Amino acid sequence: MTSIPAFEHTPIDKISNICGDVRNAFLSHKTRPIEFRLQQLRKLYWGLKDHREAIVEACKKDIGKSSFETYLTESSWCENDIIFMCNNLEAWAKDEKAPDGKLMDTAFSPRIRKEPLGTVLVIGAYNFPIQLSLGPVIVAIAAGCTVVLKPSENAPHAGAVMQKILAEYLDPTCYTTIQGAVPETTAVLDQKWDKIFYTGSEAVGKIIAKKAAETLTPITLELGGRNPAIVTKNADPRLAARRLMWAKCLNAGQVCVSQNYTLIDKSILPAFIEQVKKALGEFFPDGPQKSADYGRIVNKRQFDRLKKLLESTKGTILHGGHMDEADLYIEPTVVQVNDEHDPLLADESFGPLIPVLAVNDIDEAIRIANSVHDTPLGIYPFGTTAETDKILNQTRSGGASVNDGFYHASIPTLQFGGVGTSGQGAYRGRASFECFTHRRSVTTTPGWIEGLLDVRYPPYNMSKQKQ
Ligand code: NAD
């Protein structure tokens, strides 16, 4: 079994040199050949395979994640992303011919070269510590960039395992890790970057965006949720309850794309609540705390925040409510709230708090969803096709899963990203490659065409214009 190395903050006085070395590696053109990128991706694949047990152990220690969830959403997720990239890389990296225009233009071979953006910084969040850090790293490698990874300090074991894998399996001059919290990240942000890829909260996203704006550095921001689920009167309450409870119990609700609140037609609220209780009982027959499949809150700070948030609601707890600070455990807790202004709707809970608000009809649900946050990361309508289409047509969101909780985020060929304040830019699928690639427009002017080009040279005259 591979042991987990110790987590150590990177000394701040070393950060500038580390980043400079990675920049120099890009400038050496080492990462440009496709074969080099494929070789590095294959090595990373084996690094992940060799460290599967360490990854499981790290995610268990960091966030109480079950082995199954770690396998599904962290290790095999990244392994599959690597296979997907390797299978598509050559096709995506090829020059793209410009669409046919004027006949003469084709003589100039107008085309788009796919160029790596350069040296990129990837800043990860804690909740899927491996996936959200290595996912963008995999793509940046595929695109031919050199990379500095700054994982979340709130998942230190996962951070340490990734640092070990990158150092032992990849070319250390091209890909490296900087560990730390705000002071280290601030020092990292002071360096020169060709792209910053950030996953995390909206508040920190603004700090990153401001910093990047000073140097016109392009950014991708994968930000917070506040996502609504809408369950109409024609939805199947059992199906909606099982799927939404799955989405809220995975990672103990610490999922950016999980529903933050559910708006439900008042006529099926009782049936829905009954099915919610039934589903939770089926998922965790001995209760969630005793189940190996239910995670924990990442740390005391987040535990206290969730506790305070639950205390602030004016709603009624219909199920759950148990908390155990020593174990950082919070039971999936269903709260019926009275109105759309309840803090459980306004704030992103990012935990297993499950507010439900009864509505009179679909129009009221749409109005409330749009007024709580008009550009959430995801939206989850349940109902007939006509109803779910209406909801999609009258709302905005980064993505959507119809009749499910966040399934769209798990499709590797589908791009993922926010809109408005839930994010900028997207990755996964082909969008991943484009995220770290500059589409460089190029033409080549052949020598034989000079006679035809005569028209463009001064002195100009009207007879030339007629040619
Ligand atoms: P966070 O914003 O606290 O931290 C994310 C990263 O930012 C960490 O690496 C951290 O070290 C760094 N950071 C924190 N404060 C900073 C500062 N002042 N200056 C510079 N860097 C700083 O987020 P988190 O608690 O790790 O994750 C939870 C949030 O992330 C939620 O809002 C969630 O919705 C969001 N999230 C979004 C996605 C997505 O794909 N859209 C995925 C996961 C999480």
UniProtKB/TrEMBL annotation:
<dbReference type="InterPro" id="IPR012394">
    <property type="entry name" value="Aldehyde_DH_NAD(P)"/>
</dbReference>
<keyword id="KW-0560">Oxidoreductase</keyword>
<protein>
    <recommendedName>
        <fullName>Aldehyde dehydrogenase</fullName>
    </recommendedName>
</protein>
<keyword id="KW-0520">NAD</keyword>
<dbReference type="Pfam" id="PF00171">
    <property type="entry name" value="Aldedh"/>
</dbReference>
<feature type="domain" description="Aldehyde dehydrogenase">
    <location>
        <begin position="16"/>
        <end position="442"/>
    </location>
</feature>
<dbReference type="InterPro" id="IPR015590">
    <property type="entry name" value="Aldehyde_DH_dom"/>
</dbReference>
<feature type="active site">
    <location>
        <position position="222"/>
    </location>
</feature>
<dbReference type="GO" id="GO:0004029">
    <property type="term" value="F:aldehyde dehydrogenase (NAD+) activity"/>
</dbReference>
<dbReference type="GO" id="GO:0006081">
    <property type="term" value="P:aldehyde metabolic process"/>
</dbReference>
<dbReference type="InterPro" id="IPR016163">
    <property type="entry name" value="Ald_DH_C"/>
</dbReference>
<feature type="active site">
    <location>
        <position position="256"/>
    </location>
</feature>
<dbReference type="InterPro" id="IPR016162">
    <property type="entry name" value="Ald_DH_N"/>
</dbReference>
<comment type="similarity">
    <text>Belongs to the aldehyde dehydrogenase family.</text>
</comment>
<keyword id="KW-0125">Carotenoid biosynthesis</keyword>
<dbReference type="InterPro" id="IPR016161">
    <property type="entry name" value="Ald_DH/histidinol_DH"/>
</dbReference>
<dbReference type="GO" id="GO:0005737">
    <property type="term" value="C:cytoplasm"/>
</dbReference>
<dbReference type="GO" id="GO:0016117">
    <property type="term" value="P:carotenoid biosynthetic process"/>
</dbReference>
